[in-house]
Every structure is written in C-alpha cells, then in structure tokens.
Amino acid sequence: MIYSLYIINKAGGLVYQRDFTNHLEKLSSNEYLVLAGTFHGVHAIASKISPLHNSSGIEMLEAENFKLYCQQTLTGTKFLLITGTQQGNVDSYMKRIYDVYSDFVMKNPFHTPEMPIRSEQFDQSLLKFMSTA
C-alpha cells in the first residue's frame, strides 16, 4: 500500500504533498514543511558521512510500520514515497510518478521551478495512477 508522496525542491522546501489513504494522522502545514526540511538535511548529512565517495544519501528508510523511499533527480528534486512494509516494485512506481511530474509540471509553461506545484492535471493523473497501483 502506498501511503504518501512528498516532493522536495533542491533547497529542502516542500513543493507537493499528497496522502493516498485516510488512515494517516493529518499534520499541520508547518509540520509538513518541517518534515521536508528535516529529511533534506538528514539526506545531505548521510551523503557526506558515507564511507563511499559520491554517495547519493538515503535511498530507503525502513521503520516498523512503513518504508520511506527517496529518489533524487539530477536537478536535486527529491521524491519521497511512503509505503507499507510489504509494498514491492517501488522503482516502477517512482518512475511512473516522475513521468507524470515531467509531463504535467515540468512541461507546464506556467509552472515556476522550485515553487509549490499547483496543477490539476498533475493531481488527477497522479490519483488515477495510484488508484490502479
């Protein structure tokens, strides 16, 4: 089960957040922003303290009741996908989410990069994909 998607810009700002289940506790807007900024910082630190040169930082974080997957693009945008512990095939979901993002956000001439995503087409395409996932 896929619980949530967060998109964080290269500066650590939350530009998109969507829950795909009603079973999650709702956070305030400020708490979502703090969560994104905190993950951005921890991700940066993890890439610096890695014993391997050019580490990409945190790619997957596993907790008792969920897994958090992070895919970072070449531009520094991070896609965080929070799933159940038994969710498989996450790479294909991340690729499809990125494809939808590319089609409806990055190709939108009215979208300003690094700013919050306000696209009805993106929302609808994402929800359609998640309902079939």
Question: Helicity, in percent?
Answer: 25-40%
Strand content is 15-25%
- From the alpha carbons, calculate the radius of gyration and give it in angstroms: 15 Å
What class, by secondary structure content?
A: alpha+beta
Describe this structure in words.
- By secondary structure, the protein is α+β, with helices and mostly antiparallel strands.
- Helices cover 38% and strands 21% of the residues.
- The protein has three helices and five strands, in the order ββαβββαα.
- The protein has helices spanning 29-49, 90-106, 120-132; strands spanning 2-8, 14-19, 60-62, 67-72, 78-83.
- Strand 4 and strand 5 form a beta hairpin.
- Helix 2 (90-106) runs antiparallel to helix 3 (120-132).
- The longest helix is centred in the N-terminal third of the chain and has 21 residues, at 29-49.
- It is globular.
Task: Detail the topology: elements first, then pairings.
Layout: E1 2-8, E2 14-19, H1 29-49, E3 60-62, E4 67-72, E5 78-83, H2 90-106, H3 120-132
Antiparallel strand pairs: 1-2, 1-5, 3-4, 4-5
Helix pairs in contact: 2-3
Question: Which labels suit this protein?
Answer:
single chain; 133 residues; 3 helices
Quick synopsis:
This protein has 133 residues and is an alpha+beta fold. The chain has 3 helices and 5 strands; from the N terminus they run ββαβββαα.
